[in-house]
Amino acid sequence: MSRENQELAITSAAGSTTTKVHLLRHGEVDNPRGVLYGRLPNYHLSERGQAMAERLAQVLADRDITVLVTSPLERAVETGAPIAKALDLQPDVDDELIEAANVFEGLPFGVGDGSLRRPRHWRYLRNPFRPSWGEPYVEIAARMRSAMDRARQAAAGHEALLVSHQLPIWTLRSAIEGRRLWHDPRKRECALASLTTFTYRDDAVVSLAYSEPAADLAPDAGQQTFPAGA
């Protein structure tokens, strides 16, 4: 019996199919004004972000990835481009992988910038559990799960790579792991150019792994804080 037939026999005997879905956060963005860019157009990868994307292309070149899907935002598409070239794949775009909507888009949102001291903003901070400043966590988790399920089905028996954003990836992971969806953004395990990998047996998640292939390229500055996502 050939190796291929042996593998098919093993799969048939087990009665299940193993599929991996990698959720990749995009690389660093060129953001000299330090704003919360959210879904705003024309925010592209920085030089360091491009280097992160090239690193990921090297790391993933030998993986059995048959499906590559990105968020429609430029930084996600640009992160996926060198990976698609390395894998000889035509990437697709899925709107459900997009960054979370946020009323603070276009504003600086770091410590000491004054955004939260403006009374007109206070009404958006009344409910951090939903959250009141943007897209509800439950809706983020639902659309991300929908996108991941489509990719998993398309890549059945192989691997899929989805390029998205920090908050959507972390929200989906929290939902799958059974944690509450509201959280401290400073404690998200989802660095720039990181991979959150779900292994499925048929349609059930059986394991989760996290890695940072471009950790040595990461900027020294901390990530944006509450309520930002990227």
Automatic annotation (TrEMBL):
CDD domains in the record: HP_PGM_like
PANTHER family: BROAD-SPECIFICITY PHOSPHATASE YOR283W-RELATED (PTHR48100), PHOSPHOGLYCERATE MUTASE (PTHR48100:SF51)
GO molecular function, one term: phosphatase activity
Coiled coil: none
Gene Ontology CC terms, in alphabetical order: cytoplasm
Native organism: Phytoactinopolyspora halophila
Record InterPro entries: His_Pase_superF_clade-1 (IPR013078), His_PPase_superfam (IPR029033), PGM_Phosphatase (IPR050275)
Pfam families given in the database record: His_Phos_1
Protein name: Histidine phosphatase family protein
